[in-house]
Amino acid sequence: MQKPISKPPIRWHIPVFLAPAFIIYTAIMVIPLLGTIQLSLFSDIDGEQVFVGLANFKTLLGDPRWAQQFWNALVNNTWFFIVHMLVQNPIGILLAALLSSNKLRMKAFYRTSIFIPTILSFVIVGFAWKLILSPIWGVAPSMLDAVGLKSLFAPWLGKEEYALTTLALISVWQFVGIPMMLIYAAMLSIPDEILEAAECDGITGISQFWKVKLPLILPSIGIISILTFVGNFNAFDLIYSVQGALAGPNFATDVLGTFMFRTFFGFQLQLGDPNMGSAIASIMFVIILIGVSIYLFGIQTRLRRYQF
Amino acid sequence: MGSLSLKNIRKSFGNVEVIKGIDLDVKEGELVIFVGPSGCGKSTLLRIIAGLETETSGTIEIDGNTVNGQSPSMRGISMVFQTYALYPHLTVRDNMSLGLKQAKRPKDLIKKRVDFASAMLSLDDYLERRPAELSGGQRQRVAIGRAIVRQPKLFLFDEPLSNLDAALRVNTRLEIASLHRQLSATMVYVTHDQTEAMTLADRIVVLNNGVIEQVGTPMELYNKPKNKFVAGFIGSPQMNFIPASCLEMSDAETVGIRPENITFDGAKADLTGKVSHIEQLGGDTNIYADCGEAGLICIRLFGQHEAEVDSTISLHFDRDKMFKFDKDGNTIN
Amino acid sequence: MKHTSFKAILVASTVFGSAGLSFAQDVTLTIESWRNDDLSIWQDKIIPAFEAKHPNIKLKFTPSAPAEYNAVLNSKLEAGSAGDLITCRPFDASLSLYEANYLAPLTDLEGMSNFSDVAKSAWITDDGSTPFCVPMASVIHGFIYNKEAFEDAGVEVPETEEEFFAALDAIKEKGNYIPLAMGTNDQWEAATMGYNNIGPNYWKGEEGRNALIKGEQKLTDEPWVAPFRQLAKWKDYLGDGFEAQTYPDSQNLFTLGRAAIYPAGSWEISGFNTNADFEMGAFNPPVPNEGDTCYISDHTDIGLGMNANTEHPEAAKTFLNWVGSEEFASLYANALPGFFPLSKTAVEMEDPLAQEFISWREKCEPTIRSTYQILSRGTPNLENDTWNASAAVIKGTETPEEAGKRLQEGLASWYEPQQ
Amino acid sequence: MSVDIKTTARSQVTFRAIAAHAILITYTLIALFPVFVIVINSFKSRKAIFREPLSVPTPETFSLKGYETVLKQGDFVLYFQNSLVVTVASLTMVLLFGAMAAFALSEYRFRGNLLTGLYLAIGIMIPIRLGTVAILEMMVASGLVNTLTALILVYTAQGLPLAIFILTEFMQGISDDLKNAGRIDGLSEYTIFGVLVLPLIRPALATVAVFTMIPIWNDLWFPLILAPAEETKTITLGAQVFIGQFVTDWNAVLASLSLAIIPVLVLYLIFSRQLIKGITAGAVK
């Protein structure tokens, strides 16, 4: 017979469930990152780390040499993001809309093929596109030649005016699978009854997409936008593997990620400056945090989630 | 079989108090039903009894033992859920025996009990199937079987019939009733459906806003509701409430009259109204009449009757069967 | 289920954990390097030769990709996980490591006596008192050319600026070869193989370089703008789409026989020998006028230092002494034609191209790359800016004068002698 | 030819299907083209790569030289094995620990629940790479440098925030009744999690697995910093070294790139069936 217990026992299982994730995440991610943010408040003066408050941020935004690089990177980064929003997500939605039509055959094949670039490493993606777009190797020029458009060819990756857009498009090529998958799933989860009701009302084909499906997948599009935002403002690898840490030509493809990397770890003869690098990293964090907050408090609340 | 006693049970979620001091005794072998509108706290109370929710204060005794703080499985209860909650990866037999296996009971005992329950619920043919291969009614029977096998001191039912269609609901209701008789088990049953409550319960507990409005046998509640809430909640179609002023009665704020206690009688008319809708149920007929300030009034007549929509009718109320309520909604005797 | 999976993780982590421990009693030295191209040479030639003499010391050569080397090495040093021996970039990158106490002073290392002061200059404190890396090799800049292409166009090896452009014109006229193999996509190619290749002839090698460091000359002065003017003229001789042409593209263009002249560093020699199936020659950067003294960039490029925190300082020193020896010099020079030993004793080289390059040391004045010593210590970084400017000048997006002005402003913003 | 209304309607449908296929095929070609170029050229001789990059290998141009070089030089089997161990171990830990935390967050009401959830989600926004130096110091201090354990720990930390975020959302959809039924049957919270909940969120786990696996498999940075030793090299790092090592040996580069595609493709195919199910079931709504 149980003895009567007056107080509920401590629910040990809650800390037990949380502990592994909490400990690993805190120890290996949070503490090092806090260390990085802390670094941004210090400066190396004669080999000593000295607390300088916000001086590094002042340099970054105030000193014309730093500020010029910073704003260049930020503007490029914004353009990089805009290209993704304008190209990647609409293509993703289009592909998903096509894939979700009922009677289509070979769905799995298309889905898998289009997702393949997403699983490739940046090393492969960078190398492949550099080769294809290379004026020397001649894949792109000879393909354009074949359709009589050779004159359109330009060494896109080497021209300041095209390089960033080209890279953004490569990145779109690589990642279009993610919005496609998520939107596809969202479309599949629209109940058939709603679509059947639309058919009965004579809303079919493209107008069905605009009038019925699109409003219902808006929350998913919102999520994708914010994932794209976070991803783009953390972008680094693709640009690094195609254009190197100096993000050429003439910094035309420099984004916050490459700027931070170069500053933090140094490059070639340029010595690493972890303090300034951390300052850039902290600003990146703030930018992403602001973007996410705008989304969470400004946009998401207005996107209605429909109960099916 | 055991008794249940609740003493001053309170429960708050954050600053919101959802159970506001409940005292209740359930005798051995009794089937007690909690009814109330959604959000009244009836499910929370059931879950507190089960130990799935921790009470903020108060004492729970099952079979004379205080069980506060004990885990659900130690309380000697079993529970049947609205969504069946069968383990999708286990067969019917394993679903029923899991609790006993967990308690390390001997194999032959488990088998005996499962066989007993499956025979009782005619589940013998389905013992090796998985839940996904069963119909809704079969699944609910498995859930009930799982409860029986544990031979609990106390059965708890959480709206067990809500997910079934109308015909099955009646059948299963009968099954539960016969189960109660056969096992003479103590049962606590939660529903929002007063018909279910009336047909099944030994005693009904009407809950509203986290407090007990009234406890009693179905007929006690029907005949002697303590207040307007209980009067309105028990009985179908619902009791008509009429402002006392319309009937020129000064000793009450509101009067209540059940639809079956109204007759057509032009000579002794208490009110006149216009027929707005008729429901022909075959066995009886419900007529709804718009009586101006007195509101929409439902009249229940036995047998089949005809009436023209928009025709004017005179209503007579059986004065002996009228209820009077004061400003606070309490019944005036 | 839970228990077993935890156990599995525990077991797994101990298994992996032990993989990192060294198991031999012998000392094992790890060498950090960015020369991943040399991996097989170290494994097949250098390490066996050393281990044969010193059986108790094992060597492990662990290179990382050149672009990541600095970042990786700095992180490892900071965390204390770097190897025992560290391949040194010349000048400031290594000096800062020494100053941060990551590299050990090598003042009393015997092998050091085998090197001249010039050889040691890249890895010594500013006051010249303490060396911290053993000089391994230098690279010489010049031009490698395709002999068949020269025959085809009927041109001779150019000695002056004028002849150089005449030769380029002739090759272009003939149309069978792209005259110059160079791209601006990677930027450093334009600076290292362009500006610092031909530049010394204009700023007169060490004379100009030292004047710049002292603040006596400015980057806007003629000797420093003139090389940009030359580069600006190169544009017409480069291949289609050179803007997107990468360094490996240039190498391929040349070794596959499609380009006539390759502005080179001597380190290309071994790769070109394997990949090109035509005869190659080399010439030093043409001088502005006939009879001018020629200058070459004979750049101290690789040194080897000792991690100050190594657990095996004695073994590391043994190895460093060996690196300073004649045996190593000859082994290295012949294994890697194009990396020229810096030791005082002359080394016999078999490769004809390498012989050609090294022969310029006798007729021309050697210097090192203008931006490497002292001048790239601050922000903005002069070396990185020079990459950018050289590429821009070749592409024609910036005039030579503008480039000089921009570099000067950048340098003056932090370098006192120039202010 | 007589055309009645029915066939017009049908031909409209057919036309739409053809248009859909046309667009999808076009995009599929765009998606696969670069991969195709790399793979076909990896089987050609160096000259042929340069001369006709778009043609498939013919008997004259066919060459396995690149693959020979690759297989001779690096220990690709070992690299592959390392990558597999790291990826599978990190995935297991991310999925297990992530699901455990998500379960705690979605199942129990306790003080600080919301705060803990936010705290764990912040990691989605910051690349862990920013903390490299501190991580390396920590690994050195604990003697984990040049062990696969170091990589596994880092990737676990990196993958957890998104995993917890997705899984929490998903777990909220699991019937409370089922878990309560388990409690009444005397299952411990751990058993409820392991036996009842985990199997039900399989699709969500697959979704998380794919999103977590790709960056782990393809990561270059941490292998380079934390475990560059020959015994612990991952396949991506191995391939990268080839690119550095044979800048001009395109046979070897292309061969190593082609080899590096296969394993991640296989892993993806394993998870992809569950992936669609997972996203559909509302893992990322």
Automatic annotation (TrEMBL), chain A:
Keyword Transmembrane helix: yes
Pfam family, one: BPD_transp_1
BP term (GO), one: transmembrane transport
Annotated ABC transmembrane type-1 domain residues: 74-295
Segments passing through the bilayer: 12-34, 79-99, 108-129, 164-187, 216-239, 277-298
Keywords attached to this entry: Cell membrane, Membrane, Transmembrane, Transmembrane helix, Transport
Cellular location(s): Cell membrane
Annotated membrane topology: Multi-pass membrane protein
Gene Ontology CC: one annotated term: plasma membrane
PROSITE patterns: ABC_TM1
Main localization category: membrane
SUPFAM superfamilies tied to this protein: MetI-like (SSF161098)
Family (UniProt): Belongs to the binding-protein-dependent transport system permease family.
Full protein name: ABC transporter permease
The species this protein was found in: Ahrensia marina
Automatic annotation (TrEMBL), chain B:
SUPFAM superfamilies per record: MOP-like, P-loop containing nucleoside triphosphate hydrolases
Membrane listed as a keyword: no
Record-linked Gene3D superfamilies: 2.40.50.100, Nucleic acid-binding proteins, P-loop containing nucleotide triphosphate hydrolases
Start and end residues of each ABC transporter domain: 4-234
Keywords in alphabetical order: ATP-binding, Nucleotide-binding, Transport
InterPro entries xrefs: AAA+_ATPase (IPR003593), ABC_transporter-like_ATP-bd (IPR003439), ABC_transporter-like_CS (IPR017871), ABC_transpr_MalK-like (IPR015855), ABC_transpr_MalK/UgpC-like (IPR047641), Mo/tungstate-bd_C_term_dom (IPR008995), NA-bd_OB-fold (IPR012340), P-loop_NTPase (IPR027417)
Recorded topology in the membrane: Peripheral membrane protein
Protein name (record): Glycerol-3-phosphate ABC transporter ATPase
Organism from which the protein derives: Ahrensia marina
TrEMBL record, chain C:
GO cellular component, one term: periplasmic space
Localization, UniProt: Periplasm
Gene3D superfamilies per record: Periplasmic binding protein-like II
Chain residue ranges for the region called Disordered: 398-419
Principal location class: periplasm
Name of a matching Pfam family: SBP_bac_1
PROSITE patterns, per the entry: SBP_BACTERIAL_1 (PS01037)
GO BP, one annotated term: transmembrane transport
Signal peptide: 1-24
Keywords: Periplasm, Signal, Sugar transport, Transport
Family: Belongs to the bacterial solute-binding protein 1 family.
Functional note: Part of a binding-protein-dependent transport system for a sugar.
Protein name (Swiss-Prot/TrEMBL): Probable sugar-binding periplasmic protein
Organism: Ahrensia marina
TrEMBL record, chain D:
Transmembrane segments: 21-43, 84-105, 117-136, 148-171, 192-217, 252-271
Subcellular location: Cell membrane
ABC transmembrane type-1 domain residues: 80-271
PANTHER family recorded: DIACETYLCHITOBIOSE UPTAKE SYSTEM PERMEASE PROTEIN NGCG, MALTOSE TRANSPORT SYSTEM PERMEASE-RELATED
GO cellular component: plasma membrane
A Pfam short name: BPD_transp_1
Bilayer topology annotation: Multi-pass membrane protein
SUPFAM superfamilies: MetI-like
Keyword annotations from UniProtKB, A to Z: Cell membrane, Membrane, Transmembrane, Transmembrane helix, Transport
Protein's name according to its UniProt entry: Sugar ABC transporter permease
Family statement drawn from the similarity comment of this UniProt entry: Belongs to the binding-protein-dependent transport system permease family.
High-level lineage: Bacteria, Pseudomonadati, Pseudomonadota, Alphaproteobacteria, Hyphomicrobiales
InterPro entries associated with the record: BP-dep_ABC_trans_perm (IPR050901), MetI-like (IPR000515), MetI-like_sf (IPR035906)
Domain of life from the UniProt record: Bacteria
Gene Ontology process terms (BP): transmembrane transport
Chief location bin: membrane
